[in-house]
Amino acid sequence: MADKIRIGVLGASGYTGADLVRLAARHPAMEIAVLTANSHAGKPMRDVFQHLSHIELPDLVTIEDAPWNEVDAVFCGLPHGTTQAITKEIFEKHPQTKIIDMSADFRLRDPAVYKEWYGLDHMATDIQGEAVYGLTELYRDAIREARLIACPGCYPTAVLLALVPLAKAAMIDASDIVIDAKSGVSGAGRSLKENTLFCEAGEGLSPYAVGKHRHMAEIEQEIGTAAGVPDLRVNFTPHLIPMSRGELCTSYVRLADGASARDLRHHLLETYAGEPFVTVADEDVLPRTQMVRGSNYVVVNVVPDRIPGRAIVISTLDNLVKGSAGQAIQNFNVAYGIDETTGIEQLPLFP
Ligand SMILES: NC(=O)C1=CN([C@@H]2O[C@H](COP(=O)(O)OP(=O)(O)OC[C@H]3O[C@@H](n4cnc5c(N)ncnc54)[C@H](OP(=O)(O)O)[C@@H]3O)[C@@H](O)[C@H]2O)C=CC1
Ligand SMILES: CC(=O)N[C@@H](CCC(=O)OP(=O)(O)O)C(=O)O
């Protein structure tokens, strides 16, 4: 293979950053050149993550100390609000760099909507316009040309892969979507939070951010665009479930006149025929997190609702792989013209 592409991972001491490093370390076209951290800066990566002690990795440095002239591509796994300024700075000094962001900082096209949901002024409105929404299966052509890729949130990835094709084909009523979502605790990141403590997350199931979760903005943006419905509103309720990784979204939809659950499933089968990572489950198989754990796969299916004129669409993924690091690498592969499955072909872990 020609020279490897040198990558930097911002936020390598976090969950998405660490999973990115785990996958990148075996990617034949990548060389891990720079890893950054905040409170963990100055430490060897193996001191922070013992599961990565089998390989040689650069030590963690602060963003300020990172040598940007030594990287070709940057993956960002930073908290919301911390990616815009550094993205601008890198592009100003090294305009050829490709940036693949796993945070929400460039996902929302309208900076006013970003402010509404994140409570922050957008600090890079001049480059927001060139950001491509990194849902690979739906934006592949634009990703090929992009230097700034905004990977979707984990819940939106699961929901949009299932619903956008149906909304686009006008097979469902985009204005009547109710999404019940559940996520493992790693979705909340590695920092200490009360609701993620073992004693408080274990043996329980808790709804959170009901009626106000910021992923609604992303889901509305993308389904609204696909369906041609400006100001679309969806109902989305996430729950924290006591497992470390994995996510399952159950969407209750109203069928367009004449459409059946079976038609919806056939449409998804046609849409995703040939897609390496989206599996439409066999007719009687219900998606379960155990079908995707540790992998870049998404499993979807559609079943009839007992209420006439409605259907239930279920989708599942691993929030740290297809929901963040795996999808980021999939986008990297597309952006660099590498076979899309490179480095992320792992089958799910089971049991
Ligand atoms: N977890 C998930 O399933 C998903 C997360 N995301 C998004 O990806 C991003 C990262 O999430 P996740 O890995 O879970 O988060 P973590 O909390 O696990 O990690 C955050 C990382 O950012 C670093 N960091 C924190 N604050 C700063 C700062 N002010 N300046 C520089 N670096 C900083 C931390 O360094 P240190 O630890 O050394 O202090 C750490 O490396 C977030 O935007 C998140 O919303 C997207 C999809 C899925
Ligand atoms: C369990 C849990 O807390 N999950 C996170 C999802 C994080 C994510 O996927 O996405 P963002 O990049 O948009 O934060 C949450 O609901 O905020």
TrEMBL record:
<dbReference type="GO" id="GO:0003942">
    <property type="term" value="F:N-acetyl-gamma-glutamyl-phosphate reductase activity"/>
</dbReference>
<feature type="active site">
    <location>
        <position position="154"/>
    </location>
</feature>
<dbReference type="GO" id="GO:0070401">
    <property type="term" value="F:NADP+ binding"/>
</dbReference>
<dbReference type="InterPro" id="IPR036291">
    <property type="entry name" value="NAD(P)-bd_dom_sf"/>
</dbReference>
<keyword id="KW-0055">Arginine biosynthesis</keyword>
<keyword id="KW-0560">Oxidoreductase</keyword>
<dbReference type="GO" id="GO:0006526">
    <property type="term" value="P:L-arginine biosynthetic process"/>
</dbReference>
<dbReference type="Pfam" id="PF01118">
    <property type="entry name" value="Semialdhyde_dh"/>
</dbReference>
<dbReference type="InterPro" id="IPR023013">
    <property type="entry name" value="AGPR_AS"/>
</dbReference>
<feature type="domain" description="Semialdehyde dehydrogenase NAD-binding">
    <location>
        <begin position="6"/>
        <end position="146"/>
    </location>
</feature>
<dbReference type="Pfam" id="PF22698">
    <property type="entry name" value="Semialdhyde_dhC_1"/>
</dbReference>
<keyword id="KW-0521">NADP</keyword>
<dbReference type="InterPro" id="IPR050085">
    <property type="entry name" value="AGPR"/>
</dbReference>
<protein>
    <recommendedName>
        <fullName>N-acetyl-gamma-glutamyl-phosphate reductase</fullName>
        <ecNumber>1.2.1.38</ecNumber>
    </recommendedName>
</protein>
<comment type="similarity">
    <text>Belongs to the NAGSA dehydrogenase family. Type 1 subfamily.</text>
</comment>
<comment type="pathway">
    <text>Amino-acid biosynthesis; L-arginine biosynthesis; N(2)-acetyl-L-ornithine from L-glutamate: step 3/4.</text>
</comment>
<keyword id="KW-0963">Cytoplasm</keyword>
<keyword id="KW-0028">Amino-acid biosynthesis</keyword>
<dbReference type="InterPro" id="IPR000706">
    <property type="entry name" value="AGPR_type-1"/>
</dbReference>
<dbReference type="InterPro" id="IPR000534">
    <property type="entry name" value="Semialdehyde_DH_NAD-bd"/>
</dbReference>
<dbReference type="GO" id="GO:0051287">
    <property type="term" value="F:NAD binding"/>
</dbReference>
<dbReference type="GO" id="GO:0005737">
    <property type="term" value="C:cytoplasm"/>
</dbReference>
<comment type="function">
    <text>Catalyzes the NADPH-dependent reduction of N-acetyl-5-glutamyl phosphate to yield N-acetyl-L-glutamate 5-semialdehyde.</text>
</comment>
<dbReference type="InterPro" id="IPR058924">
    <property type="entry name" value="AGPR_dimerisation_dom"/>
</dbReference>
